Structure formats: structure tokens, C-alpha cells
Task: structure prediction
Amino acid sequence: MKRTNLNFIIDTIAFLGFVLLTTTGVLMRYLLPPGSGSYSTIWGLDRHEWGGIHFWISVVFFSILALHLVLHWRWIASVVTGKDHEASGIRAGLGIVGLITVIALAVSPLLSPIEIQNKESSSYSSHKSNDISISGSMTLKEVEEATGVPASYIIESLGLPETTSVNEKLGALKKKQGIEVKDVRGVVKVYKN
Result:
């Protein structure tokens, strides 16, 4: 295969990868936003499943760009070093410093410590109902312990099957039974009043 044709194919795939990466990013940011309080899907895929697709598109995109750089390495090296004269060493040095800076910026989040917040202090994933946090990551038993509302009452009030486990998370119940966290909050509010 001619080098020109190979470059065209790689550049086309890279462009398609960029478009798909941008599309899935916009989709997750604006159409399936985090913490929306509802379970939304597009083509049967929720935000987390689209996140997986977004990740694998980025892996393919990164690989194609790496191949693109390998195929153009001689051109890149000649642009960075330039013609042999007094300033070519400075130019090469600036190119190396720039490359190291980009790599350091890309790797720094991977090397940073992960900050873990408990459910009570996180305003992102939980909502208050009479000063009690209820989130989709909680089980019915945890809601019972936090609110004092019996899990059996919540199950009955929401019209869930009697066989529903109290150890099932609200997010899973949302997918299986179509209940919303706001529905659980409503049951808790009615029980407390």
C-alpha cells in the first residue's frame, strides 16, 4: 500500500474517532447528565454504559494518533530540529521540554491520590429528605436504618413484590421496577408525617 493511501486511511479513522469521542462526551455531559434524579437511556444504554463506550473509543483514538505520529516521525524530527545552525539546539530543547510538559500534564491525574467522601458529606450523589440522606447507592435496609421507616413499609407503599430483598440497592430497583429515589423520599415523608 502506498504511504499516501495509508496516511489517508489513518487520518480518516482518527477523524472518525475524534467525532465519536466528542459525540459521546457531549451525550454524557448534556443529554445524560450525572445526578439528574432519573434513570435515562439512549438506545437502551445509560450514562455508565455510554462511559464505557467513550473509554474504548478514546483507547482506539489514542492508538491511531500514536500510529500517525510514528508514520510522521521524520517530519516531526526535522521540524523540531530545523536546519543545522546556532538556534537548532534551542529549538530541539524547547521541543523536548514541551513534550515532557504534555506527558506530565496527562499523567498527573493518574498519579494523584483518590479522595473518597462518605455518603453523608457528598452533595453530588445524595439528596436530603428531612435532614436524612437518601441516594440510589443505598439499600432498603440502609434507608430503614437512616430514616427509621421500616423497609417492609417502603416495599408495600411502592407496590414492590413481597420477595424484594431489603439488601437491594435503590439504583438496582430503579432499573428493575422503575421506582425513583424521589418515590422513596416521598414514602419516607408520608410515614414521618
About this structure: The chain is about 65% helix and 5% strand. Strands lie at 127-129, 132-134.
